[in-house]
Amino acid sequence: MNPPPKKTPPPAAAASSAPVAPVAASAPEPAAVFRSGFVALAGRANVGKSTLVNRLAGLRVAIVSPKPQTTRHAIRAIVDDGTSQIVFVDTPGLHKPTTRLGQLMVASAWDAFLDSDVAVLITDATRPGPDGHERQFCRKATEAGKPVVLCINKVDKVRKETLLPIMAAFAAASDFLAIVPVSASTGFGVDTLLAEIRAHLPEGPRYFPPETSTDQTERMLVAEIVRERILADTFEEIPHGTAVEIEAFEETDEGGGRIEGDETSGRRFVRIQGRILCEKETHKAILVGQGGSMIKRIGTESREAIERMLGCRVHLDLRVKTKEDWKNDRSVLRDLGYGPER
After folding, report:
1. From its phi and psi, is residue 328 left (phi > 0), alpha (psi between -120 and 50) or beta?
2. φ, ψ for residue 129 (rounded to 5)?
3. Is the pLDDT of residue 46 over 70?
4. What are phi and psi of 126, to 5 degrees?
5. 3-state SS record for 252-281
6. CB atoms near residue 110 (< 10 Å)
7. Stretch (H or E) spanning 226
8. Domain that residue 244 falls in
């Protein structure tokens, strides 16, 4: 039996004298544009600015109360989605000031507006159209060349057919970038509002680390929690004649421990001492209550909220002091951190 014939390999391809075209290197993909900026939330008192800023931040950074002029400081809430960072500034409500504190609050609101990249004018869907304060805001925005988005809040409280006349009334008052109906309490329309704001932000850097939600210090947040409980528990008996100052904030290892379910906090125990300032002795008597019942209630409710925020046990000591006409006292206002003297 003869062996099978050997297979002859195919002839090598003849070398070509034509030059070989170089392989073009793929162009690098352009870097994603990062947008950032400051956005002032402005509007009349009690239109839901603080509820909206809490919804945007995903946590409670501003106190909420049905009483007007609750927000006194310009509070920042940071929203970072990886491609943009929006620094929202919740400003005191627009109103006609009657005290030095009121003047500082209004000045703070206008300063935040002028320093912003975009402004959001928040109004209330239960009202028919712009009032004097809102029209003044629109005029100043036009004069300053400031882009403004109109946010119509509380749309969950009205019928849909009532929105069109409100939108038309505001559109006639100013040239807004967009008009966005939202409900800060339910979250309706908030994503649309964020998208409109992002679309008009300039390219820029991150101003805060991406995990940051607010620039408020823990002392400031604690003071606001106590003030919120005062507003809630004293009803109409105490007007906006109170302020809260945190005089001591000390972390210790004594007693207590982490709150159950919170494994992120390394703290064990925090001692806090606060001073509640009021204008009249009659206000002090209401704040203290019969046999200390009211101050105990305010302290207990505040402590529970503070423990949830800090993730550890808290001892809270609150004392009430009377200082007549403190809202017109420059040194007191400076000590409390209000206004440009801060």
Report:
1. alpha
2. 180, -175
3. yes
4. -85, 0
5. ECCCCCECCCCCCCCCCEEEEEEEEEECCH
6. 17
7. helix 218-234
8. 218-336
Cβ neighbours for 132, distance < 8 A, ≥ 6 positions apart: none
Q: How many CA atoms lie within 13 A of 207 on its CB side?
A: 19
Q: Give the residue among 338, 328, 341 at the shortest CA–CA distance from 72.
A: 338
CA atoms within 13 A on the CB side of 215: 13
Answer yes or no: do 135 and 262 share one domain: no
Q: What is the CATH number of the domain that holds 52?
A: 3.40.50.300
Q: Do the beta carbons of residue 244 and residue 226 sit within 8 Å?
A: yes
Statement: residue 53 has pLDDT above 80 = yes
DSSP 8-state secondary structure symbol assigned to residue 96: -
The CA-CA-CA angle for residues 157, 232, 234, to 5°, reads: 130
What's the rounded Cα separation, in Å, for the pair 61 and 305?
12
Query: Is this prediction's pTM over 0.85?
Result: no
What is the per-residue pLDDT across 293-325, written as a single tens digit (0 to 9) for each? 999 999 999 999 999 989 899 999 999 999 988
Residues 274, 223 contacting (CB under 8 angstroms) = yes
Are 180 and 288 in a shared domain? no
Distance of CA 18 to the CA centre of its chain: 68
